[in-house]
């Protein structure tokens, strides 16, 4: 039996392959329990043709979900480090955005206070001018209409 046929038959039995250096690790991911009388002869033949099976898995059969664990672990470490740095950057940006938001709220509160003060002073001046004008009119014998 060829390497391709071995991989195909074991895949049909629910097995997936992992490459760890020169070792092939079989993992059953199927729903039903594998039948030992079907699987054992295939596994024995796989062991006898191990170099050919490894070559086949590396070159032709990505659908069996195999990995070269040494390279994948390093790639995973790198990807995790990149993701971690991106999360730290995002966290820093969120903290800066929150600080600007709080500063803006503080400035808005200050602006509202100054606006209220200006409104109160303007109202007091207008009232004062109206009262003075009213008394001026009374003093001159004229009444305001």
How would you briefly describe this protein structure?
The chain is mostly helical.
Question: What does the model show?
Answer:
This protein is mainly alpha-helical and 145 residues long. The protein has 2 domains: 3-67, no CATH class; 71-145. Helices cover 72% and strands 8% of the residues. It has 4 helices and 2 strands, in the order H-E-E-H-H-H. It has a two-stranded antiparallel sheet. It is rod-shaped, with a radius of gyration of 41 Å. The chain starts with a helix and ends in a 6-residue tail after the last helix. The mean pLDDT is 79.
Fold blueprint:
Blueprint: H1 3-12, E1 15-20, E2 23-28, H2 36-48, H3 50-60, H4 69-139
Antiparallel strand pairs: 1-2
Helix pairs in contact: 1-2, 1-3
Percentage of residues in DSSP E strands: 5-15%
Give the biggest beta sheet.
2 strands, antiparallel
Q: In total, how many domains does the architecture comprise?
A: 2
What Rg do the Cα atoms give? Answer: 41 Å
Distance from first to last alpha carbon: 116 Å
**How many DSSP helices?**
4
Based on DSSP secondary structure assignment, what is the total number of beta strands?
A: 2
- The dominant shape is rod-shaped
> Ranges with pLDDT <50 over ≥5 residues?
none
Mean pLDDT across the residues is: 79
- Along the chain, the helix and strand elements come as HEEHHH
Q: Structural class of the secondary elements?
A: mainly alpha
In the sheet with the most strands, the strands line up as 1-2
User: What oligomeric arrangement do these chains adopt?
Assistant: single chain
Give the fraction of residues assigned to helices: over 70%
């Amino acid at each position: 039996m060829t390497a391709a046929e071995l991989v195909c038959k074991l895949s049909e039995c629910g097995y997936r392959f992992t490459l760890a250096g020169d070792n092939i690790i079989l993992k059953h991911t199927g729903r039903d329990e594998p039948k030992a009388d079907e699987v054992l002869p295939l596994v024995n033949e796989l062991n006898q043709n191990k170099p050919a099976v490894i070559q086949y898995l590396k070159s032709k059969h990505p659908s069996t979900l195999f990995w070269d664990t040494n390279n994948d672990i390093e790639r995973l470490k790198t990807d995790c480090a990149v993701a971690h740095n991106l999360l730290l950057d995002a966290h820093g940006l969120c903290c800066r955005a929150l600080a600007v938001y709080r500063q803006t709220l503080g400035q808005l509160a200050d602006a509202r206070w100054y606006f209220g003060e200006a409104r109160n002073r303007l109202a007091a001046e207008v009232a004062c001018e109206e009262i003075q004008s009213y008394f001026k009119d009374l003093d001159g014998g004229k009444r305001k209409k």
